[in-house]
Structures are given as C-alpha cells and as structure tokens.
Amino acid sequence: MMRVSRYKVFCCVVDAGSFTKAAHELGYTQSAVSQTVRALEAELGASLLERGRGSVSLTGDGHTFMPAIRAVAHAEDDLERRRQEVAGLLGATIRVGTFSSVSRRILPPLMHRFEELHPDVRFVLRQGEYTSIAQWVGEDRVDLGFINGDGSGLPCRTVATDTMLAVLPEGHPLAASREVGLEQLAREPLILLDEGQTSVALTAFERAGVRPRIRYEVTDDYSILAMVREGLGVSILYSTMLEGYATGVEVRPIRERPVRNIALAWASWETLPVASRRFAEFILENAGLPPQL
C-alpha cells in the first residue's frame, strides 16, 4: 500500500476538525499528525490552520491552498486505485465458462488482444452448456460465463447474435432447396444439440407449431456433424460453429431464422476480481457496448 501523504493527512485533519480525531481515523499518533501538518506548512511557506482548544480551522492561506491540496489528495487516491488494478492483473487467473461456438470464434481473438495488453494474466476456460455455465457463475466456479441471454436470471449483456442453420447429409432431398423450413425439418430424424434448459432449436419448433422427431440428443457440435455425415439424421447448428467445419454435409438457411443472443454474464459486478472485470469491460467495448458500471 502507498503511504498516506501529507496532503491526505491535512485533508483528514480539516474534515475531522481536530488532530485527535484525524489521528484516530488514520491510525497515527496525534504527534505524528501534527508533525505532518507542520511539514506541509513549511513546504508551502504558509500557516494553514488556526489551532484552537480541541479543534482546528483554516486560516486565510489555508482556504487559498485547500482546493489544490484536496486535488492532489484525490489524484493520489486515483493513482493508488490504478496501482491496485495493475497489481490485480499481475499473475491473475480469469475463469470463463463457455461453449464451443464462443470458444472457437469469439474468445481466441479477444484473449489474444487482452494478453498483449496484460501479458501476465492466465485464462482457465470451462466448457459447458447454458444451464451449467449459469450455475457455475452463480456458485463462483467461474468469474464470467457466456450464456444464452434469454432468461438466465443473471446480470448479463448481449455481445453477439448467432443464427441457426439446417445441416443435412450430402445428397439429402431437402438440400435441393435454397432454404428449408422448420416444418420440413420436423419430419426428418433430428439430431438435437443439447443446449441445457434453454434450447433455441426447440423454442423455434414450438413457435412454428411443429414437433420435431428427435432421434438423438448430443452435447458436442462436432459429434453431431460426424453423425450427419453418416446419414443418421439432420440437425440445426449455429453459423459460428459451422464456419470452416461444414465439410461432407449440406448447409442451408432456415426460413424462420432462429437466432440466439450470446450474452456475457457475471454474479456481481462489484465483487468481480479486478482482472476478470477488466476482461469483461474489454469484451463489452469490443462489442460496441459501454463498460458496465
């Protein structure tokens, strides 16, 4: 910790109205406080305080110097806050709950740029689905979590959107169309991506008034791709996940355009570790959002 400067000691004496009260607040002896104020008066070449019986008040020169003295004290406070933030980033671990689309497309460039600014931070990524990630955030098992922004109950901000696309085996009849509808997909054996309690795909089918024929329910996106390639069924996966990996399958837009809101969540902004809060601010700024206050 930075030592308490003579400017802050002087402000404390003025605010407390006495050397005794200021000494108690600062944890100093009264003699040390008096010596500090005298040193400041000597530095400025002026008498700053009228000493009364058990109380003090500003002299004329004291009133003149007081705004500048208080400004220096506030600047020192700001400097100490920044020092603590930097110290909090040195060797800090940032724990993030995430899912495959974010891990593959969104997080790597963000982590790379953040590490260029703060090379001593360390990241721990924990893979899951929306429900488990929200639970980890609430239980303080991760600092930040990427979730579906609809109805988690956690404070969060939407940082990206992601459209679902139809994934079909090569040569599938539906691939002859430029886009497919949910009603058509509902008639096919479906390999459903397990998204926890909040399924964008199932919500989309429900809104369309159709019930899909779920043959398999799988958590891993890439396993689903392999299963579609083998002709085990059709699926609906996110565009961010499919970029560069949709080989051996047919991908078509879905007429109803089901979309998820990718949100960054936390339990309490005020109690976030410094490094994690700074990374969250960095993510929000890169998403074009104002930092969370």
What's the topology here?
Layout: H1 6-16, H2 19-26, H3 30-44, E1 49-51, E2 56-58, H4 60-89, E3 93-98, H5 100-117, E4 122-127, H6 130-138, E5 144-148, E6 156-169, H7 182-186, E7 189-193, H8 200-208, E8 213-218, H9 221-229, E9 234-238, H10 239-242, E10 249-253, E11 259-265, H11 274-286
Parallel strand pairs: 3-4, 3-5, 7-8, 7-9
Antiparallel strand pairs: 1-2, 5-11, 6-9, 6-10, 6-11
Helix pairs in contact: 1-2, 1-3, 1-4, 2-3
Task: Walk me through what this model shows.
This protein has 11 helices and 11 strands. By secondary structure, it is of the alpha/beta class. The strands form 2 sheets. Strands 3, 4, 5, 6, 7, 8, 9, 10 and 11 form a 9-stranded mixed beta sheet that branches. It has a two-stranded antiparallel ribbon with strand order 1-2. The two termini are 25 Å apart.
Short summary:
With 293 residues, the chain is of the alpha/beta class.
Question: Descriptors for this entry?
Answer:
two-stranded antiparallel ribbon; rod-shaped; 11 helices; 293 residues; 11 strands; alpha/beta; nine-stranded mixed beta sheet
What structural class do the secondary elements suggest? alpha/beta
The secondary-structure element order is HHHEEHEHEHEEHEHEHEHEEH
User: What coarse outline follows from CA principal-axis ratios?
Assistant: rod-shaped
Give the low-pLDDT segments: none
- % residues in beta strands: 15-25%
**Largest sheet composition:** 9 strands, mixed
Task: Report Rg.
Answer: 30 Å
The first-to-last residue Cα distance is 25 Å
> Number of helix segments?
11
Would you report the number of β strands?
11
- What share of the residues lie within helices? 40-55%
